[in-house]
Amino acid sequence: MENFNNHPLYRVHNIDSAMNSLWDFYRRNFLPLFLMSVVMSLIIQYSSTYINLSELQSETDPFVIIEKMKVFFVPMLIISLINLLFTTILQYYIIHKPVDGSNNIVSSVLKSFRYYLPYLTIIILLSVAGTIAIALGLLVLVVGAFFAIIYVIMLYLFILPVMMVEGTDIGSTISRVFSLAHRNFWANFGWVATFLVLVIVVSVVLSGIALLPFAGSFFKTVFNPEEATAAADLVKNPLYLILTSLANAITVPLMPIISAILYFNAKAREDKTEPDYQSIKEEKRVKVEDLYARPYADDHPENPERKDM
Asked: Whole-structure pTM over 0.70, yes or no?
């Protein structure tokens, strides 16, 4: 079994060390993470071309929109399931590769399947609870909804690392996720918010760069809604698919790395505060020599063998 205490992300972090660890791990493992992310992004991007939401732009009747959305339900569900599988593979590689030299991309793909169904089950439960939390948050204006969203994302980020390090039992995983996420709660919450802003900003910038060759078509669609069909054709453009997949592949590994940082930080803090029960037992254990009286020193007044007597 791997010793995760040797994982490069296992340590008690502050925000500076977390950022440094994120960049250092990303830089050292860039090539395999990027290659996996490119393949994932290409598959998801290509699958998304079968969902043509431009048909809804000309509709104003909400009932008609709902009826048309039903057609897209199955493709969107399939894409979501594929995305969750890819996330599991990436997370497995990030968690296990540094502590298991024999682990590679192929073994990560194969071994990650055992975590997929438990992960999917917890995601469904979290989605239901998260929807309720966000709805309640909206009752407390935008701030409440924002808090609920960050909170749900924080819980989500702990799921796979807990499962991959501590076991796939669903009940135990849920319990540990809440335990670790709520320990050092405000730091975890703040880090998640900070990392999200970072990822969103980088994603927007890279997406903008990827769209540069298609800027004319994009702005034409924005200022002329009648050109919505042109946007649908743009999404199916092979060059667009490749460029956006490359841009996405740069940011896709960030969230699994952040997830690992959050978990290993919480685990290191937990391990640091736990008493060393083994040492305590060693101290309290009765030794053989304790059963016998210790010999007197030569100059002890009660020593019967004192020479000055």
From this structure: yes
